[in-house]
Amino acid sequence: FPSHDTATGLAWATLPSSGKVLQVVTTSTTAIVTSSTNTQVSTGMTASITPSATTSKILVLASTIFQKSNSNSLNRIQVQVKRGATQIAVSESVTYNATAVEAISPWSITYLDSPSTTSSTTYDITFANAANVASCQAQHSNSTGSIVLLEIGA
Fold first, then answer.
1. Considering 75, 141, 148, 149, which has the largest number of Cβ atoms within 10 A of its Cβ?
2. Residue 11: helix, strand or coil by DSSP?
């Protein structure tokens, strides 16, 4: 495109580089992951991205279906988004309903992170049975769990 139109005298504006999607990484899994303790385990939704600038933001989009068993009314799931070993976001009491019945719940998160690095950075969605009783599952019935990482220019 020309920077200036001589017929009309109009000039093209230069678009800012901020806010542009610079790269996208995605991973999905249908593997069922089961936990019956309050120790965080990976859902298998793990992806790595190498930001092109320290000022870039990473938009994390993730979703899956969780299930809790019907054996305990306290049974509930805690979900964490981790950058490396650091928890950066948490969802408490997923599937909690205060009754000893099975609960199946779709779950999703949108989180904007500022990793301030140009090194490869790994994001992982983990979960645990927060009550440390009975069992819970990610990717219930082999549903698809996915994580999408978008680098956003600053």
1. 75
2. strand
